[in-house]
Design goal:
Blueprint (H helix, E strand, L loop, with lengths): L11 E4 L7 H7 L5 E4 L5 H11 L3 E5 L8 H14 L3 E6 L1 H14 L3 E5 L10 E6 L2 E6 L7 E4 L9 H20 L5 H23 L4 H20 L4 H13 L3 H16 L4 H10 L11 H15 L16 H9 L11 H13 L5
Parallel strand pairs: 1-8, 2-3, 2-4, 4-5, 5-8
Antiparallel strand pairs: 6-7
Helix pairs in contact: 3-4, 5-6, 5-7, 5-9, 6-7, 6-10, 8-9, 8-12, 9-11, 9-13, 10-11, 12-13
């Protein structure tokens, strides 16, 4: 076994159907008295439900969270938090809302309580991202890690099936890259495999019946594990590309991860054989049964999981312009970072072309 460093994660998780009812007690445990509730415009009703549960502890609602956390929105929510005298924030929603809460914590140190309604996994990480002047800048800071996370699978019933699929594959990306990153470790490897497997078996069931509570619980459990992996080890090419495509070209976050992941895995496969074997195994894919080498089956299996469950599999379908692929490649090559396979411009440009065209990596 190789040498490794494992860093434990502070924070509390409350998991299970109906666990939203414990919100008041958890806010009290944080010692907070005035909570600013955060949400997207589409989830205003959920935020109002949270505010009702909080009663006099609700300082107000900010319902303007959007993708990629633009700096203008960050400035507005920070000003409102100061104006209201908020001493904590409650973020209900997906990665956009949690990311906005992190931006408040980064500035003020206010504790964050996250209530995920997607499978983004951001609630488990010290990673934050803010977009300014068309560039998404990310970083790590322990202040932004939510102190408490309430995972209530019943809250994901309102998540459309299409977004459930892409959000789930976004979570799989966290675990997949965690298996071959430079600082991977055996503890995270176990969580990564279990997280991928939980999502792979639950997403098709959710597509069959969006109100399948057991499948929704399994998916949220998998997303939690994948988020833990994202926080404890570094990421590589896939996440770099998705931050570039999302922050610079304003492509939808989960959908972009879904399109890019199979191609990033195919790019790295020759230099990450063991990781690809674990991913393929977690996805219930046999290289022998499919008459393909296992190092290729992981990439193809992720592609098939997306396509078979109705997700877009090309950047063109997300609104990317083919004329922008060269620019995306140039940005991705800036600020070199660890990756199993060295970043080669020609191969990286071909990866982007394959993703744009939606080719199955087979």
């Amino acid at each position: 076994m190789k040498n490794f460093v494992y860093r434990g994660q502070a924070g509390k998780v409350v998991f299970g159907p109906g666990s939203l009812s414990q919100l008041g007690a958890e806010i009290e445990a944080l010692g907070a008295h005035k909570a600013l509730v955060l949400c997207t415009p589409e989830q205003r009703a959920s935020a109002e439900q949270v505010a009702d549960l909080l009663g006099t502890r609700a300082a107000g609602i900010f319902d303007r969270a959007v993708m990629h956390v633009p700096i203008e929105t960050v400035r507005d929510v920070r000003a409102l938090a100061r104006q209201l005298g908020a001493d904590c924030a409650v973020a209900i929603g997906g990665g956009s809302t949690t990311g906005l809460g992190k931006a408040i914590a980064l500035d003020s140190g206010l504790p964050i309580l996250a209530i995920p309604t997607t499978y983004a996994g951001s609630e488990m990480t010290e990673v934050y991202g803010i977009t300014e002047d068309g560039m998404k800048k990310t970083g790590r800071d322990p202040r932004v890690l939510p102190r408490t996370v309430i995972y209530d699978p019943e809250l994901t019933f309102t998540l459309p099936v299409s977004l459930s699929v892409t959000s789930g594959i976004n979570a799989i990306a966290h675990a997949a890259e965690g298996l071959y990153c430079i600082d991977s470790n055996p503890v995270m490897d176990v969580m990564a495999r279990e997280g991928i497997a939980a999502l792979a078996r639950s997403l098709p069931l959710i597509r069959q019946s969006s109100a399948n509570l057991a499948a929704r619980s399994d998916a949220l459990y998998g997303a939690w594990l994948c988020g833990l992996v994202l926080n404890n080890v570094g990421m590589a090419l896939h996440h770099k590309l998705c931050h570039t495509l999302g922050g610079t070209f304003n492509l939808p976050h989960a959908e972009t991860h879904t399109v890019v992941l199979p191609h990033a895995l195919a790019y790295n496969a020759p230099n990450a054989l063991q990781a690809m074997s674990v991913i393929a195994d977690a996805l219930n894919v046999s290289g022998v049964a499919s008459n393909q080498p296992a190092v290729r089956s992981a990439a193809a299996a992720v592609y098939d999981l997306a396509q078979d469950n109705g997700a877009a599999v090309s950047l063109s379908a997300l609104g990317m312009q083919e004329a922008d692929l060269d620019k995306a490649c140039d940005i991705a090559l800036q600020n070199q970072y660890p990756n199993p396979r060295p970043l080669e411009r020609r191969a990286l440009r071909q990866l982007l072309q394959n993703a744009f065209d939606g080719r199955r990596p087979d």
